[in-house]
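Our consortium's second objective concerns turning raw sequence data into structural hypotheses that experimental partners can test. To show how far this objective has progressed, the report includes one record in full. It was chosen at random from the queue rather than selected for favorable results. The single chain below, 219 residues long, was entered without modification.
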Amino acid sequence: MNTHAARALLKYRKTDAARWLSHLDLTRALERAIRRTKLPVVYSEGFNPRLRMSFGPPLPLGASGDAELVLLRLVEPVASAQIKDRLNRQLPAGIEMIDVRSLTEDESSLPATRGAIYLVRTVCRADKPAEAASQAIGEFLAQKSVIIERMDKNGPRSMDIRPGIDAMELVAADRNIVTMRVQISHLGERIPKPVEALLALSGQEREFEVVSIHRESFY
């Protein structure tokens, strides 16, 4: 029996309270919702069968996103509109399927990505927030190396985040609320976090406090 007759690429958004679901909790929430749809999905073999799903790059905890990806394997083809409708009836608040597409046999499991684009809203405490943000961004991009400390299981570790920032720009400044767009590469050994880029800006004698992080798309 062919248990890989069809694959569906699901694109969903994660917003509101769902932003605070860890990737593991999100996986469980999606799995429970898919089980309730009664779709003909593929399960792993063994004592504790699990849904055969593959996820795109996880969101940072607390971030929202409009382009999150998951690949679902089906025993038999199901219309994309039906998958989307049945899932949206079961998903918890803050998670919404926005697109479902059947993959052809020659398509890879998940689209390859070079990086992701984030919108980061911050509070800037400088007297002239727009000018301060523009100057800080220019200084950051002019540097060949920007060293930050990242905590891991072995304690703090130095990391150069500059090679992982493909672009950064000021999008808007409304009083002291400054919005920036940051393009983060996925090609390096270590992928910078959006908040780390903002902390590096604050380290240049300007204080930017992150209000929200939103992943717009992949590239």
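The partners drew two points from this record. The chain has two domains: 6-102, 115-218. The mean pLDDT is 93. Both points have been shared with the crystallography group to help prioritize constructs.
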